[in-house]
Design goal:
By secondary structure, the chain is mainly beta. Among the domains are: 53 residues, no CATH class; 112 residues, no CATH class. The chain is 4% helix and 22% strand. The protein is elongated and about 135 Å long.
Length: 337
């Protein structure tokens, strides 16, 4: 294929000097096919007078010879699972009850599925999230986590773009890519899962604002703190769970605690309900939060694994037991040892 002498392309060029090809390159430097060559070729220009050839002999390079290959390339086979439809290259529109880029993740309405969530999967997305869970994550996997961004699935990212503005110059720029919602079959956005170890129950439900209160009730999903009675009731640390309940000091005291020197052994009780004597629990001003969490994905694409194992490998939450893979879409759990 003939190109203008100054064209910048990714093709190999024929070098007029020795009739060889230039090397492969991202953008090959121009290599004009000169009007004469070291070894005379049929296309060489006239260099001296002869029969039917008279001066002047003014010639100049007017082309590059590029080696190209014409190929007919068709789009590969792309399938969307569970009755999803491929509506564009690499884009599935999922049927009711399924989400994901290829429609292989079930929607569990009783779990942590959020219809209006931009990311397919997200956690707290802060600097501590990876630090808290790194000891429990698989050490043999590559993670695409973005704790400071929009989550760790379909995240936003920067891409270098190169566009030719003419035949010799290109324009380089940086564009924001990704961060797009996956689609449902009706064209609406899928939403996604917000990872949490804390379950939605009749006692604690962030959607309705329910948080049970009783003198003997407290949530076990609170970061560790010393209560007013001097005891610690939860062992979680750095999970992002502000205490939603707090315990008072005991409602009984001996005289020596009250500096009553003449009555040190006398017991003073400040309640007539026995279950309150050791202190009582009450609500704080903190709200129910999902806290920090990381979901691990293990895609299995061969036919040698059983359907049960395939389901269990598809969506698993990191746990402290490296041999235990847990499918966790909140209340629905299935484990494989």
């Amino acid at each position: 294929m003939e190109l203008v002498p100054e064209a910048l392309t990714w093709f190999q060029y024929l070098k007029a000097s020795d009739d060889t090809l230039t090397a492969y390159a991202r953008y090959s430097a121009p290599s004009p096919n000169n009007w004469t060559s070291a070894l005379p070729q049929e296309w060489n220009a006239v260099t001296q007078a002869g029969k039917d050839r008279t001066s002047p002999f003014t010639c100049q390079s007017d082309r590059q010879i590029a080696y190209v290959q014409l190929m007919n390339t068709t789009q590969g086979r792309y399938r969307c699972a569970n009755n999803g439809n491929c509506v564009a290259p690499d884009t599935c529109s999922c049927a009711k009850g399924w989400i994901g880029f290829d429609c292989r993740v079930p929607i569990c309405e009783q779990g942590f599925y959020e219809q209006d969530q931009l990311q397919f999967v997200k956690g707290a997305n802060d600097d501590l999230e990876l630090n808290v869970f790194k000891d429990y994550l698989s050490q043999h996997s590559n993670y695409r986590l973005d704790p400071q961004g929009d989550g760790y699935s379909n995240p936003r990212y920067e891409s270098r773009i190169e566009k030719f503005v003419n035949r010799t110059h290109m324009l380089r720029s940086t564009e924001q890519k990704g961060g797009k919602w996956y689609l449902r079959d009706d064209g609406s956005m899928q939403g996604g899962y917000e990872c949490s170890i804390r379950a939605v129950t009749e006692w604690e439900d962030y959607r309705s604002g329910t948080l049970f209160e009783h003198p003997n009730f407290y949530s076990s999903y609170m970061d560790q703190k010393i209560e007013a009675d001097g005891l610690v009731y939860t062992q979680w640390q750095l999970m992002g769970w502000d205490p939603t309940h707090e315990k008072s000091s005991p409602l009984e005291m001996y005289g020596n605690s009250l500096n009553i020197s003449d009555d040190d052994e006398r017991l003073f009780i400040y309640t007539d309900e026995g279950y309150r004597r050791q202190g009582e629990w009450s609500r704080t001003l903190s709200n129910w939060t999902k806290g920090r969490c990381i979901i691990e994905f293990e895609r299995v694409c061969n036919n040698e694994i059983s359907p049960i194992d395939l389901e269990a490998h598809g969506f698993d939450e990191s746990t402290s037991n490296s041999r235990l893979l847990v499918q966790d879409t909140d209340l629905v759990r299935r484990s494989v040892r």
